[in-house]
Specification:
- The chain is an alpha+beta fold.
- It has seven helices and 18 strands.
- Helices cover 22% and strands 34% of the residues.
- Strands 8-9-11-18-16 form a five-stranded mixed β-barrel. The protein has a four-stranded antiparallel beta sheet with strand order 15-14-12-17, with no helix packed on it. A two-stranded antiparallel ribbon has the order 1-2.
- Strand 8 (149-157), helix 4 and strand 9 (175-178) form a beta-alpha-beta unit.
- The longest helix has 17 residues, at 210-226.
- The chain starts with 6 loop residues before the first strand and ends in a 5-residue tail after the last helix.
Length: 339
Amino acid sequence: MAERESFEIGGIEIKPGERKTVDLAAAKLYTHTEMRLPIHVIHGKKTGPILFVSAAIHGDEILGVEIIRRLLKMKSVNKLNGTLIAIPVVNVFGFINQSRYSPDRRDLNRFFPGTGSGSLTSQIAKLFMTEIVDRCTHGIDLHTGSNHRVNLPQIRAYLNDEETERLAYEFGAPIILDANFLEGSLRQAVYDKGLPILLYEAGEVFRFSEIPIQAGLRGVLSVMRAIGMLKPKPVKETKIKSAVADSSVWVRAPISGIVNTKVKLGDRVEENTVLGEITDPFGETQENIITNDAGTVIGKLELPLVYKGDAIFHVARMRSTIRARETIQAFRQEFEPEM
């Protein structure tokens, strides 16, 4: 059998069986210092899929960085079929400045596929598409909740695509949200190229939370096995049977004040359930936060200080109430020692 060809990216050659870190030239700072996008490539000896796993498109969403670090430390990835491209920090500028945004105050995940002559944010998006996405067959993008909000581990995917749906279930997160595309998102740009992509949401900004990290790492490995990059486990592992939500809604603050929550992530709520209450510092004013929709709480605000209209609870409308309840219970039991 003919030897597999080398993999080239950023002018660097990676031979079959090799792994290398490559720095893609992104832009210069105004100090003349070169800013680079670091990636790590593992090029297997045997042919197979080419998967990218990315994190920190928003510079403050660092949980995925740790998932990728642990993934690259695993011995099994040294014997993979195909090629893994790991990009732990996509938004290098935001990551360094501990900011969600690029230096031009733009959200990178609204500028894909980007242009070569537009804003700095648009040019970085273009670089990512041409140097990474155009070489790949599959993608996984790792995110967290934003702006003081925490997310239950969940996959967001377009389930009308058969392969995407299969891999969403293989990931094994407790919730799959059949989510529409956001204009300019990486997920939309990758899908437009005909590639299956999963978006993993879990945890919160600036935090390494063990449960979302473990669930995310396990999910990435499960997808790699499902597409033939890694060998199946000798003993079939018990996998979370994901519950699917067709839509979701944010429950917002009816008044400004201080929030006391009454529900936690994963809780089942019915229509007209009191999710919490808002008071003023003196306790003279109080109003309940009530949901108009039945579903499962998949995200919530951690900061107790709110203005009227702030999004506080994210409720997913589930296809099956029974499946959702069983899935959340199984997930909690599995991670009970860490909870």
